[in-house]
Automatic annotation (TrEMBL):
Keywords in alphabetical order: DNA-binding, Transcription, Transcription regulation
One Pfam family hit: GerE
SUPFAM superfamilies: C-terminal effector domain of the bipartite response regulators (SSF46894)
Protein's UniProt keywords contain Cell inner membrane: no
Domain HTH luxR-type: 323-388
Organism: Geobacillus jurassicus
Lineage: Bacteria, Bacillati, Bacillota, Bacilli, Bacillales
InterPro entries per the UniProt record, alphabetical: Sig_transdc_resp-reg_C-effctor (IPR016032), Tscrpt_reg_LuxR_C (IPR000792), WH-like_DNA-bd_sf (IPR036388)
Protein name: LuxR C-terminal-related transcriptional regulator
Signal peptide span: none
């Protein structure tokens, strides 16, 4: 790396470190509160989180010089990579939330913070393994860190997408191609995370996925995991994948039977800078295929989910003027028709409910498709949900 670029990147890291110093008191208070909440659920998770908080606070910039393998590093080396990523995600999320609450120019500060925590992930997961812990049975770290290659490949692949539809398709393909799964379905949460709408599928009928409207109340396990938890633990509800060994015991048959769901993994699609979950990815290995999940996949799944979230957010959060113009251009009748289509009504059923002719309803549908720039009814309904026109 050139000295100029090296100096510039170090400046960004120092800028992020200065931000953490500036809000040190509040961050310390928030991290302690989260640590206490974690302790109510799992003492081991609290230990990992507290250890990483202490280490980061003591050494904000571990670059440009050697560091001895002190007690913190030795303990961190014994932690599973999944737990390190999970804890660093919690810490980073807290920094972003504090910035949004107190800094007038928070948006300009987020990238430096993201870069700092990216380097923390890299350094603690890779550098420590290579330089500080070559003795004993630390070789397992080296094998577990191979998922880094999958993350790089996935990120490079999804960034090629030029539209929302391409982004969704690339994400589904990437989850299936770069990880050991054969089917993938991508969902977006709407109505304050009470419903999941199908966006795209890979290895499964795409239109079948796009027709899905899943009320989370119908799946208690998923509803709780998505976020209907106690208020004091809402900060860390988003990150970790969910393994479901037998889908038939957790999901209604109307979702299990058409797809032959057996075992599956659900991955949150999360945006750290916003502190919110915008969707989820469902993965399996084909109809009727039961499998045991290897938890060494979880670090890659978490990173895939975050990369997908950052990519999709720019399409979901469309510019206000464009959304406003699109919503205003749809007539009340067109919106009514879209709502009925979203509920699964046919053209004839919509006509009967609205006391209109079937021909008139078809006209409203064609007009809505044109205004939403949608290829078919399914895409029109999905766009209407995404833009908040219906919900």
């Amino acid at each position: 790396m050139s000295k100029e670029l090296n100096d510039h990147l170090l400046r960004l890291l120092r800028e992020a470190a200065d931000i953490l110093h500036m809000y040190e008191v509040e961050l310390d208070r928030e991290w302690k509160r989260i640590g206490e909440a974690l302790g109510k659920r799992n003492a081991r998770v609290q230990d990992v989180f507290s250890t990483l908080c202490a280490f980061v606070q003591a050494r904000l910039l571990p670059y440009g010089g050697g560091h001895s393998a002190d007690g913190h590093l030795e303990r961190i080396a014994a932690f599973h990579p999944e737990m390190i990523i999970f804890s660093l995600n919690l810490m980073e999320n807290t920094v972003h939330q504090v910035l949004k609450a107190h800094a007038s120019a928070a948006a300009a500060l987020h990238p430096a913070v993201r870069y700092l925590f990216f380097k923390w992930n890299e350094w603690l997961l890779y550098e420590v393994n290579e330089q500080s812990f070559k003795s004993g049975d630390r070789s397992s770290w080296k094998k577990e860190s191979l998922w880094k290659d999958a993350v790089i490949l996935f990120n490079e692949w999804i960034l090629r997408a030029q539209t929302f539809e391409e982004s969704a398709a690339h994400i589904c393909f990437g989850f299936s191609y770069f990880l050991p799964f054969s089917r993938c379905a991508l969902f977006q949460f709407v109505n304050q995370e009470s419903m999941a709408i199908g966006l795209c599928g890979h290895g499964v009928d795409n239109e079948q996925i796009q027709r899905l409207r899943v009320e989370l109340d119908s799946i208690p396990m998923l509803k709780e995991s998505v976020g209907k938890l106690k208020a004091e633990v809402h900060e860390f509800r988003h990150f970790r994948p969910i393994y479901v060994p037998r889908a038939s015991e957790q999901f209604p048959r109307l979702y299990v039977d058409p797809f032959g769901l057996a075992s599956l993994v659900i991955v949150p699609v999360y945006v750290p800078t916003e502190g919110r979950m915008i969707g989820g990815v469902v993965l399996d290995r084909g109809p009727g295929r039961f499998f045991a999940v290897d938890r060494r996949l979880f670090p890659a799944l978490m990173k895939f989910g975050q990369s997908a979230g950052e990519l999709l957010l720019k399409w979901i959060e469309a510019p206000k003027k464009e959304v406003g113009a699109m919503v205003e251009s749809l007539s009340p009748r067109e919106i009514e028709v879209l709502k009925l289509l979203a509920d699964g009504a046919s053209t004839l059923e919509a006509a009967c409910q609205l006391y209109l002719s079937e021909f008139t309803v078809r006209d409203y549908i064609s007009s809505a498709l044109r205004k939403l720039n949608a290829k078919n009814r399914t895409e029109a309904v999905a766009k209407a949900f995404r833009l908040g026109v219906i919900g």
